[in-house]
Amino acid sequence: MPYVKTTGAPATDLYYQDLGQGQPVVLIHGWPLSHRMWEQQITALTEAGYRCVAYDRRGFGESGKPAGGYDYDTFASDLNDLMEHLDLRDAVLAGFSMGGGEVARYLGRYGSDRVAKAMLLGAVPPFLLKTDDNPDGVGQEVFDGMLGAVKKDRIGFLDGFFPNFYNADQGLNEAGNDLIPFSKWIAWGASPLGTQQCIVAFGTTDFREDLKTITISTLVIHGDSDRIVPLEVSGQRSHEMIAGSRLEVVQGAPHGFAATHASQLNRLMLDFLRS
C-alpha cells in the first residue's frame, strides 16, 4: 500500500491513492471522513484525463493515528511531504471543508511553486470562530459543544451529525440511502483523539493571512443550504478575499454536496480545470 512518512512531529504514515494520468489533482477530504468521500470525483476526473491523488489526513482513514500533530501547520507540512514525495508539479489542490484549510495554509507557508490552481469546496476558511474582529463568525460554545459531545459519545455524535451534513430531511438527491451509514462507517474508524482535536483546529484557526497570499486561479464552490459551514461565514468571504477568484453557489446543496450533488460538482471542477 502506498504511504509517505511525514516529517511533522509526531511523525506518521500518510496513506494515499494515486490514480490516472495527466495534470495532478490533489483531493483533501473533510472531517470526519477519509479519501473515500471522493469516489465520484475520482471516477470523473480520471476518466477526463487527470491524475488524482487522494490521501487520508493523519488520524483518519488508513493513515497512521499518532498522539498529536492535529493542527494546520502540521497538516500543511504533511501535504508538503506528499507533494515532495510524489514530486507533484503544476498540481491543483482541492480541499473540502476542513481540507480547504490545508489548501490555504499550504499556500500560505509553502507557496505555489508546485501548484497551478486551487479549489475550496464547502471549505472552512477564512475564519470560523466569532471574535472581536470576526463578529459574524460562529460562537466558541458551538465548537465546545461538539468537542464535549465527541468526547462523551463519539459514535452517538456521528449518528446525529451526518443527517445534517447531508440535509437528509430534504432528501439525498442523487445519492442513495446507504450514504449516511457509509459515512458513519468511514468516521467510526478514525482516531478518537484526532476526531476531537480536529474540531479545535478547524474551529479556531485563522486563515485570513494565508488567503491574502493566494495569487493563483482559485475556484470556490459552496452549497447555499450548508448547515455545517454556512456559505455566508466561509465560501462567500473567501471569494471576497482571494483576488480574481470564482464563486459557484450550488442551489439547495448541503455541506456534503460531493455526494448529494456529485454530477454538478464534477462539472464545475472539470470546467475550472479546463479553463
Automatic annotation (TrEMBL):
This protein's UniProt keywords: Hydrolase
Source species, domain of life: Bacteria
UniProt keyword Secreted present: no
Signal peptide feature range: none
InterPro entries: AB_hydrolase, AB_hydrolase_1, AB_hydrolase_fold, Epox_hydrolase-like
AB hydrolase-1 domain sequence ranges: 24-256
Pfam family, one: Abhydrolase_1
Record GO terms (molecular function): hydrolase activity
Keyword Hydrolase: yes
PANTHER family: HYDROLASE, ALPHA/BETA FOLD FAMILY PROTEIN, NON-HEME CHLOROPEROXIDASE-RELATED
Family statement drawn from the similarity comment of this UniProt entry: Belongs to the AB hydrolase superfamily. Bacterial non-heme haloperoxidase / perhydrolase family.
Name of the protein this chain belongs to: Alpha/beta hydrolase
UniProt source species: Microvirga aerilata
